[in-house]
């Protein structure tokens, strides 16, 4: 069954109206997803046992007249950097090809408690490092909208399954844009919540001070519902916030009259014309809805990429040190000494991008260069955060593009890592500042390639962000 017509509400109505059971839906969704997967390579692993046992629980609750949960029966896919107990979690790396986690990420646990049916694990860039999903050890994902193009990255598989109709919702992770950029490339909604809003317990660490878990969906409303389920304080993650979690979906009344929207000059200067036109048309829709727009400045944006690729690689070099052939999986064949074993295990196990980042990160943290690179980057990060704080004194939300261009061709940028890094220019600042941000589809180019509108709001004000996105989505249909 193609799931692209389904939403959380339509499934709930179908279940309560006895049109189908959660078990029937799960069986059909799994069969469809398995049959369609060869087209895109978006799923790496299916989890039929887990899917069917959750679906059965939902059916039992409905039969008993109990509340089946906010995500009852909804087929969901999980990015393969998020741990699932008993279900292989590879991080798209050879090193973890056979790794079976002994526990669930908090977000996964909360989804199942709410009746969400986990169909499987989605492909991504190795350890979430990349912008095109071409760094997966298990082959790239193809964009369901245009099969010769990348789905974006690193959460390419999670964006692709929603676009393809092989899941209704999915979870991705975003460190520098990995939810919003693939959402934009595949024409779906993708949300990066405030840093600390969603527990990172069970999210494989890439750059801990930047990592976020967040939802993908077709409609803004569905992302709002999913975020509410996974958000909130978790004792297992000391950086998860105590801030109360509002009912985001209940706030979506389509009214954004009088909202002040900032357009950062730095985001509109060098935009490719087609993307720029679509973004400006979206801004016009917001104006017609009664928003007041004004130009703002985010003056430190030009330093964001350099700053991010110092901090993210520094943290990654430390986080990836744990894959040593002793813990987790995959050990190179017997060697003479322990350090040989480490070296060969890591040499064989990590792909080129991970190695590049470990080297870069180790370098910027080394005694001689720490002040020149890492410390300097931390200072720049504070300035970028201050840009947002100052902008939010004048406006309620900031909008702009997600990516300077739409989905590019497979292979087009793989040999030029710097040009790949530059594609993250508009997404990285949001992660560095820790503010909530999202991508909502805002039309397609003449070639039919989707473009996403990015929306940022103040820390912990996801409600305002969802309200803008939802009002835009309804008005633009
Ligand atoms: N493209 C960025 C990178 O390669 C972002 C990745 C991410 O958000 N996980 O680091």
Overview of the molecule:
With 477 residues, the chain is an alpha/beta fold. The protein contains 16 helices and eleven strands. The chain has helices spanning 8-16, 22-40, 48-63, 106-113, 156-164, 180-186, 220-230, 265-268, 273-288, 304-319, 338-349, 352-365, 370-394, 417-422, 428-433, 462-476, and strands spanning 43-46, 75-79, 117-122, 169-174, 189-192, 212-217, 260-264, 292-296, 397-401, 437-444, 450-456. The chain has an eleven-stranded mixed β-sheet with strand order 1-3-2-4-6-5-10-11-9-7-8, sandwiched between helices. The radius of gyration is 21 Å and the shape is globular. It starts with 7 loop residues before the first helix and ends with a helix. The protein binds glutamine (GLN). Glutamine is lined by residues 128-131, 154, 174-178, 206, 312, 424.
Distance between the termini: 24 Å
The number of helical runs is 16
What binds here, in terms of ligands, is:
glutamine
- Which strand order does the major sheet show? 1-3-2-4-6-5-10-11-9-7-8
Largest sheet: number of strands, sense, barrel closure: 11 strands, mixed
Shape: globular
The succession of helices and strands, N to C, reads: HHEHEHEHEHEEHEHHEHHHHEHHEEH
Q: What level of helicity do the residues show?
A: 40-55%
C-alpha Rg (nearest Å): 21 Å
Low-confidence stretches: none
Average predicted local confidence, pLDDT? 96
- The percentage of residues in β strands lies in 5-15%
The total beta strand count reads 11
Tell me the structural class: alpha/beta
């Amino acid at each position: 069954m193609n799931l692209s017509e389904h939403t959380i509400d339509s499934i709930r109505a179908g279940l309560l109206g006895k049109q189908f059971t959660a078990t029937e839906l799960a069986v059909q969704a799994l069969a469809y997803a398995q049959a369609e997967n060869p087209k895109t390579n978006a799923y790496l692993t299916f989890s039929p046992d887990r899917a069917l046992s959750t679906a059965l629980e939902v059916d039992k609750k409905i039969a008993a007249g109990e509340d089946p949960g906010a995500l009852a029966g909804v087929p969901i896919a999980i990015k393969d950097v998020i741990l699932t107990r008993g279900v292989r979690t590879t991080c798209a790396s050879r090193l973890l090809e056979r790794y079976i986690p002994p526990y669930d990420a908090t977000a996964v646990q909360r989804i199942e408690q709410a009746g969400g049916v986990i169909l499987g694990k989605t492909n991504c860039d190795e350890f979430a490092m990349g912008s095109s999903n071409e760094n997966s050890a298990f082959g790239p994902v193809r964009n369901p909208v245009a099969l010769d193009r990348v789905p974006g990255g690193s959460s390419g598989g999670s964006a692709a399954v929603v676009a393809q109709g092989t899941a209704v919702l999915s979870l991705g992770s975003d460190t520098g844009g990995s939810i919003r950029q693939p959402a934009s490339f595949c024409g779906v909604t993708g949300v990066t919540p405030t840093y600390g809003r969603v527990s990172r317990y069970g999210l494989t660490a890439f750059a801990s001070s930047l990592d976020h878990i967040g939802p993908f969906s077709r409609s803004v409303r569905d992302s709002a519902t999913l975020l509410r389920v996974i958000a909130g304080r978790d004792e297992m993650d000391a950086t998860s916030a105590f801030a109360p979690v509002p009912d985001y979906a209940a706030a979506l009344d389509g009214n954004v009259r009088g909202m002040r929207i900032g357009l950062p000059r730095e985001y509109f200067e060098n935009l490719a014309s087609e993307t720029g036109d679509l973004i400006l048309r979206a801004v016009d829709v917001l104006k017609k809805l009664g928003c007041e727009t004004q130009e703002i400045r985010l003056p430190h944006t030009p330093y964001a990429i350099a700053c991010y690729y110092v901090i993210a690689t520094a943290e990654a070099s430390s986080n990836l040190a744990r894959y040593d052939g002793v813990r987790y999986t995959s050990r190179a064949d017997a060697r003479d000494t322990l350090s040989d074993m480490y070296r060969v295990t890591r040499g064989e196990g990590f792909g080129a991008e991970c190695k590049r980042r470990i080297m870069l990160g180790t370098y910027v943290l080394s005694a001689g260069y720490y002040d020149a690179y890492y410390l300097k980057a931390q200072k720049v990060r504070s300035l970028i955060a201050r840009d947002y704080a100052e902008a939010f004194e004048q406006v309620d939300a900031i909008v702009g593009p997600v990516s300077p261009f739409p989905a590019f061709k497979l292979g087009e940028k793989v040999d030029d890592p710097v040009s790949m890094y530059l594609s993250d220019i508009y997404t990285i600042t949001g992660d560095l500042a820790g503010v909530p941000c999202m991508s909502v589809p805002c039309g397609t180019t003449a070639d039919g390639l989707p473009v996403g509108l990015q929306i940022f709001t103040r820390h912990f004000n996801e409600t305002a962000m969802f309200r803008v996105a939802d009002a835009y989505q309804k008005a633009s249909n």
